[in-house]
Structures are given as C-alpha cells and as structure tokens.
Amino acid sequence: MGAVKTKRMPRAVREQQMLDAAVEIFGQRGYMAASMDEIAELAGVSKPLVYLYLNSKEDLFTACIRREASALVDAVRSGVRTDLPADRRLWDGLLAFFAHTAAHPHAWSVVHLQARTHGETFAAEAAAMREEIVAFVTHLIAVGAREAHRDPDLPEREVAGLAEALVGAAESLAVWANATEGVTARQAAATLMNFAWAGLGDLTQGRSWSPPPAADDVGHA
User: Locate the HTH tetR-type domain: which residues (predicted)?
Assistant: First the structure.
C-alpha cells in the first residue's frame, strides 16, 4: 500500500497562518526584536517558506499592518447602524472600536504603536487607517449636527476637529484599557462617551460653546 498523501494547504490559508504568527510576535516583542525564526516556528513552517511567500521582514510587517488596519476599520464600520439616533451610532462605533482592540491586543500594538515608530513606510500605512476612521467619525458627528440644525448642507469641516480629538482620545484610551487589568471594552467606551457626549450632544442639539473674544485671552497673544 502506498503512502497516504497529506492534502496540501492552500497558499492563501498558509499565508494567513504566517500573518497570524507574525502579528503575535511583532505585537509581543516589537518590530526590531522580532525574528523571522520565531515567526516561522510559531506558524509551523520553515523560515525559507516565510521568505518565499512574503519576501522580507519589512514586507511581512507591512502585510500585517494592512490586514489588521483593514480589520479594525471594518469592525468599526460594521458596528454602526445608520438608522439609529446620533448618540447611539457614536456609542456603537466606540464600542466596536474598543471591543476589537481588546480582542486583538497584538494587532492594536502593531498598527498603533509599532507601525508609527519604525519608518515612514509603516507609519503611512497606519496613518491611512486613522484617516479612514476619522473620516467615518466625522461623518457620524456631521449627520447628527445636520439633523439638529436642520441644515443638510452643514459642511463636515465644522465637526472635523471634534472627530480628530475623539479618535485621538479613543486611541490613547485603548492603550490604557489594554494595559489595565479589569477594564472592559464597554467600560472604555462608556468613559469616552461620558467625556465627549456633553459637548457633542450640545452640537447635535443645535447648541455650541463659543469662546470669548480673542482680546480677552490671557497669555496667548
């Protein structure tokens, strides 16, 4: 009787297996300290096969950033129902963000920390992800503001700065939540909603805070 042949794993499946291992190693050890030997061992393949599929450590890291950035953006987008009120849409988006970053801490480390500190090419990949999330959040806030103002033409630039601030706060809070024992995604989302919604709620109700005249500013000529 001849030897039983093992079914060959499809290339796409094998490649995802390598990326899974790479994300874990990069997330744990950082880009510089991670080795292709460790990644290959965790993936259960030879190091030459990793190079054959993904060319180099730089290309492998880029592929990890792109995959995980896309997964995070998809998670946030799919978590929001557009038929719900503005506050619920924002809540669902934040909850989806924190749930995903909590469930994939190594991936969050790769796209938020590692990618930004190891070269312009990697940083550009992370920046593209962030720009897409900011644009999505800007739209969420703008829709609520347009409804409140009854002005369908209210430009998104009116709320773009709020979206930038909110995304920046979410990023910092996700790092803190992942490093702090006992903090759930729901708690992190609630913390940011409570922090942000007072101001955003005024905006979406047609009210906004106006600063005093520039002449009244103290020490900020």
Answer: 12-72
